[in-house]
Amino acid sequence: MRLADTLLQQCIYQKSSQLNLDPSRDFGLTQHECDARLKALRNALDRQQQLLWANNGPAIVVWLQGPDCSGKDGVIRNSLRGLNPQGVRVSDFQKPTELQRRENFLQRYRRELPRPGMLTVFNRTPYEGLVSDLADGDIDEVQAAGRLQQLLEFEAQLAENNIHLIKVYLHISQDQQKSRLQQRFTNPEKHWKISAADLTGHQNFKRIENNWNQAFKCSSTASHPWHILPANNKPLRNLLFCSLIAQKFAALNLQWPQPELPFAIEDLDAPAVSLGEQ
Fold first, then answer.
1. Each residue of 180-192: pLDDT tens digit?
2. Which domains does the chain have, with CATH numbers?
3. Which residues lie across from 12 on neighbouring strands?
């Protein structure tokens, strides 16, 4: 865990330069080392998730953001593999419907918040209601400032309700995005993933990245920092993402509940009691 903590500390958003850092950096870890560490980490996550489920108190929600082709689906699939599906939920947020646009932009996210004991991942975050809507002209600068304040208040409310938030951005380069889009074209099994928005997003990559950088400057706080994970390297991306969740579990320091037991072990050898006598 010590190495992972050191790497994750380097991924906390820094206002001066974070998105200017190389998304291909590997911290000196080979693919083999990343895969080996991830395998061991998954075993630890399985036990920790069972502890979270058993305690039925705190919950964890991961807000996952990133450009098209940054690997949001892939990191979710690789990181949550093997965990108890009863205690895990993934919520995918596409472009809001007309009905959703008529309600407060946070409402659809509130509906998907985890219950006690749950680990939930939001595939795309409430910050799209700030960054994307402002870029698309759906809100103006004054409204954007209002939404930012709502978002910060929302994060504070999560903490008050024992919901522990992790904010993650998968950082890839424009060249890497182009390469992954090209791979989708050459693989018929990936054609269903291609949309017209992919081209627009690729052509406006730098502007979109700058818009997110501005949002991070305003919303990466000491209590809820943004973690910018270098994501050109998929094995490293998966390792860092799992390490973030493991780090949160370690901070919770959960123990197995020790409730008062409803009967003694000796009662297992006692004569049966009819249901009507209970």
1. 999 999 999 999 9
2. 2-277 (3.40.50.300)
3. 227
